[in-house]
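Predict structure. Chain length: 363.
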Amino acid sequence: MSRPLTFYEFFAGGGMARLGLGSAWRCLFANDFDPVKVATYRANFGSEDLRAGDVWQLSAADLPGQADLAWASSPCQDFSLAGGRAGLAGGRSSAFFGFWRLIEALNAEGRAPRAIVIENVVGLLTSHGGKDFEALCGTLAKEGYSFGALEVDAACFTPQSRPRVFVVASRDPRPELTGDSPFHTPAVRAAFDRLPVELRAHWCWWRVPAPPTRNTDLGAVLEDGAAWRSDDDTDRLLSLMTPAHRNRLSDGTVGAVFRRTRADGQRAEVRTDGLAGCLRTPRGGSSRQTIVAAEGGKVRSRLLTPREGARLMGLPESYQLPERATAALHVVGDGVAVPVVRWLAEHLLESLLRDAAPAIAAE
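Prediction complete.
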């Protein structure tokens, strides 16, 4: 029987990358700074592998053995289209360099991970006209990695619109794992085209297939027994919609609503395509999502519950969420969709790493 593949999980949040990698993988080390996420991680996975604290306070000596994979879902606010677009030099996203100095130190000791996944918002591809993505690619190449990017929307797997970029880097790129993929989106191709010739030489067009067609919609994740708002509160919400949006709410419709600030004031905008909008942490981007349901000529509304948010991220029902709704939504809204990680692991990472994986002690 082959040994488990091993990984380090940086910016681990609630451990969603760990869940997505699954039982064929063994966590050697995990790190996060946020106390709510740390508590949630420990509630679900225990404390043995997790080191709480600032990534800048870690050294290579804190990292056991040599992991097959380092997963880094580094803070994305400075790359987000909803944020200030400060780029790699931004305050939050500069945490990436706290992570990368550890990879450099491990490489100097001859125990750098054989593969790295860097997950972030799609804005990473275009931040500062593509210069931040170019800098990231140059950083990877300097340490001996080949790399490629995939843009995957969680909507392929769960009823949530959540496009993310996954930069997969390898020290052994394996040409047989390259080819066409639906995740080589126009944004990814444009980012490649902007790279200088010397970095394109390190590029891998990873071959990851499309998943089967998703067979669930937003209505399928709703909790039974959740409390709906009063008719007056719903009427106030509907008054913020334009006629075009109100007309989407025909009988049998379940939709997701965000409040937006537009030129003519605050508006409520509903999508009724069976998808929730992208989950966010309660403090950032758009406001917390509202669910609306139309039946028998009447529209009801309420806030999305934490468990519904967890389902939209592909988390199992057994996953322990914080008791406070704001804390729970903070954890799930700032994570990576579990089924996306599983798909990448199954169709790329495990093939990339399984053959001739070195048996290196993890003490």
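Summary: The CA atoms of residues 298 and 322 lie 33 Å apart.
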